[in-house]
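Lab notebook: predicted structure, single chain.

Context: the supervisor wants predicted structures on file for every construct in the current expression panel, including those that have not yet been purified. This is the next one on the list. No modifications to the sequence; it matches the entry in the shared construct table.
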Amino acid sequence: MCGWDRLCFCLLVFLFSCSDAAAAEKQQVVLTSEGGLEWDSNKKTLTAEEKALVVRGDTALGADKITAYYKDGPNGENSEVYLVKAVGNVIITTPKQTVYSDSGVYEIDKSVIVLKGNPVKLFAGQEQMTARILELWQNEDMAVARQNVVAQKDSRRLEADIVRAYFIKGKQGDKTQVERFEAENNVVITNDKEKVQGDFGVYLVDKETATLQGNVKISQGNNFIVGEVADINMKTGVSRLQMLSEKGKSKKQVRGVFVPDSEKKQKPVVDEKPKTGAVLKESKSGKGREENEKRIDSSDAAKQ
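Prediction complete. Output recorded below exactly as produced.
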């Protein structure tokens, strides 16, 4: 890359940074790199090949490689970044969460970040969530996790095919928490005392209560009860299970099975359970991730 290309890049970064001066509703987008930058004026891209960082408002995205796509404004002025693609040891930090993944796509106009990994890891306060695909919807204060989803805090573990995490509105100091989880398909909630299964569930984090619907099963060891709707208090261990009544039909009964100790020893009861998320491997590229974390921390310190 020639010196003129480098100078032009600096000017483009300045234009991106200042584009919101003409449009107050838009936030600055700044791309930096320690390992060199490539500007392709034909494709309208800026690529950072090493130790790259994108900052937009209070969102910072670090990765091994970042490509920013931009478009020109009226009369070719006030260029704006509209899409960012990141690959390798991706780290995203916001006031509400920290996310680690293998790759990510940031749609600037929609304020949506789609991340993929094996697994993607989200940390929000004391809550941890892993999945293969995670969408951050920043304007809605929501994250949608798909495939092998596990949300965990202490001994409580929530598993499902799809989980939506809704974050508390506004700032809660350094302990911003998830307000609630909405889970669907093969939902399993476990703690030290019991396991609850169903087709759909809502878990309120602060109250530690859950409501499950559809093929509900509550188990304690080999003992279990089944029904259609369950209200569970994970703090007290008290659960209420009932069946839904259908118009013109008699209401079905809730059924419970309790296995005596003698029978348990002779023939264990097989507990059929829905599919749960497999244990996912840790990323092997920890070194690059640590470097990206340091870079984001440096960026935060500079802003202060």
